[in-house]
Protein 1
Amino acid sequence: MRILVVGGGGREHAIIKALKKNPDITEVFAAPGNGGIAKDAVCVDIGAKDIPAIVEFATKNKIDYAVVAPDDPLVLGAVDALEEKGIPCFGPRKNAAIIEGSKAFSKELMKKYGIPTAAYEIFTELDAALSYVKTCPIPTVVKADGLALGKGVIIAMTREEAAEAVTDMMANAKFGASGTTVVIEEFLIGPEVSVLAFTDGRTVKPMVSSMDHKRAGDNDTGLNTGGMGTVAPNPYYTEEIAKVCMEKIFLPTIDAMNKEGRTFKGCLYFGLMLTPNGPKVIEYNCRFGDPETQVVLPLLQSDLLTVMQATTNGTLAETEVRFAQRHACCVITASKGYPESYEKGYPITFTEEAEQHTYVAGAAIKNGALVTSGGRVTGTTAVADTLKEAIREAYRLSDGVKFENAYRRSDIGQRALQAKK
Ligand code: AMP
Ligand code: GLY
């Protein structure tokens, strides 16, 4: 079988490595992939958002199955375009990807179907939003409606900050068209959990839960990033809570999307907050999380391609999705300065052992050598019988990834360890 994976980050590298365990797969292509992925797949120089070029490549190269991993191409309709040419895909169609593509859509969906989430108001006029933040409860959360690389969320601790965020988004177009509509919502408190779930539109099979570390600095300080590390499972997500989430959130969401004529197939990502009033949805993503995938897929014991195809074919109910009862930790090594400005082009070296456990995100090949090309450069994952051991091993292996100006948080997994105690 010939597989095409659309995307080019650590998540896509983890997906490709997991897919390749299936001996039926003879060739894997990545569009665009990256310098590190090039070890495991044939990288083709097509951007993940260039849908016509992706479709042309897939057709010419007789791709049997395509995995569309990032949010942008999904929201732009990559799956629809590939399916039109008869290429089966993993991922939702455009009309379902809107669950991530528009926060206003997802909030209205949750309200309509009684799915627990933060209370909110939607604004399309600056004046109305400004007058709302003069009286709303503080802190409050201001969110750009559209995709903004995870950066379109401002937690405002004061009215002034809320007014500034609203003005930046609506009048100064800080997030482009993504911010012409804003959602202003209730500030929630509680541990955060990421749950990725396979679904074929009828059956939902959640994967092992995980915990992201979004801030750049130790002890959750500094700016929000795309994620500096992850652990799985998330110790806050007990079996009891999982049951509540299935009943009150996962199944109702699948049902709601069906009722709206927007059947969701693929991986639905539930960003949850475990509040004193029960679990609530912070966000939906229409795809695998990054770097959640880098801890979840190494624990998957079932064949990834088989499960993915079951979501496409509607046979997920009969398909086994089994995870190892073990622990995983992924430590991101970033370019110093990320998520703001940072230098690129530094050569990357690995010990053999580190390379085997590392997913490459921001790296390119220049004059035959692997060099840094992005903010998050690598993610190194270890799997062990205990969380403590997984953390220790992930850090030990990360030390085998070397480049100038490398930066990593030193406390990935520590909060999870405390929670276990
Ligand atoms: P999002 O991009 O929607 O995942 O938001 C980014 C981060 O902002 C989340 O991971 C939370 O830590 C935080 N956040 C988002 N919405 C809320 C909320 N209503 N209350 C408290 N924190 C929030
Ligand atoms: N790690 C958060 C995300 O993928 O959106």
Protein 2
Amino acid sequence: MRSPIPDFLDETLNRHRSDRSGENADYIPDLAAADPEKLGICISTLDGVEYTSGDSEFEFSIQSMSKPFIYGLALEQAGLPAVLDMVGVEPSGEKFNELSLDKKSGKPLNPMINAGALAIHSLLGEDGSSLAERTEIARSGLSRFAGRELRVDESTAAGEWEAAYRNIAIANMLRSYDVFLDDPDDVVQGYIAQCSVLVTVKDLAIMAATLAGGGLNPITGEQVLSPRVNRQVLAVMMTCGMYDAAGDWMTEIGIPAKSGVSGGVFGVMPGQVGIATFSPRLDRHGTSVRGAKIFRDLSNRLSLHIMDAPEPARSIIRRDRRFVGNNGEMVRICSLQGLIQWSGSENVIRAMDDPATSTNVFILDLRRVNEINGVARKMLTEALSRLKEDGIRVVLMDPEDMMKCKGPDSALPDVKILDSLKSVKGLKRVRNDRRREMADRSV
Ligand code: GLU
């Protein structure tokens, strides 16, 4: 079979190809001269499969899309408290290059606006690292997200440095408030080099998929960011990534994203995919016009809005049946399915706690469960111990060891573990009278 996904991407690009609104960024000569007709997209899955359409191999400078990744690297290097001490996490609602600091703390508001990103760049490496050292840390760090060696485009960097008055002003403001003690020109040049790293939409989609996969690069298998740092990066991206359009973007499109003045946009659907688009003409917020429209399309057509909640917890219980054994014992088999998180475990515990059911043996059947997260495992472990304390015999059907203790505080009570239901064959099914009663009443 030929996958329908590339065709879907071709159609999506074609729907927006004729839109020529917006303008290339003009303050960096290489961006002003970029071919405005270029249009590309890549979606990367969490196991590294890339679906592409259009100019997916075309290289462009990463610009502001470097900010979340470098923020992550700085967090890994310096730790959350030190980074938070220097740069806040509040959305500014301002333009990317606003000369602004938090009025009370004197800190940049967040790491996605230039004031914050310049401060974050100054954290790379040891205290007093040179411009060349920081540039290399940024380049090699971005490469780890992409899963290949990226390079700095010297021509883009030189062009931006020629007209970097605004960023130099911001860096001097930061220096005057002692946000950093480095030479402001060096920090700006390093930051510009960071912004001038060349990527394709394929690189960006892999970088986005790394964030979508909790910091794990789907190609190299490297854990580039720890899950905690990764979450921090995504949360900041979601609230601050689109500058003064952040609210519109999150409500309408709902995919945490970051844009760059080169015309790239990447988006992260946690646990699902990384997406990247490229098209140079920008809207008044500095975001690619066609990129934003394509993201809107994907959000609607693929139901990718982050607030579209996943399957509700009530479908966790696949079947809950009661049987009578030969010796008159009441056996209850509760079969679960899918992904069990906190709310799902609450649902199961509520069913276990049913006062109307007298149970002698409780069998928890996990054969159709795909995953139990740590919190749900803890909750269920505790509930099973309590059932045991109540004198109920607990049996676990867990051929894939989903409930096996993975931490010191979640030791499973001493329960019988079965691989199949063979040993309970021959039990006589008891109709759920209570449920029937309720159904009768509703007729
Ligand atoms: N290098 C650009 C700047 O700082 C990046 C801006 C952007 O992509 O939004 O001016």
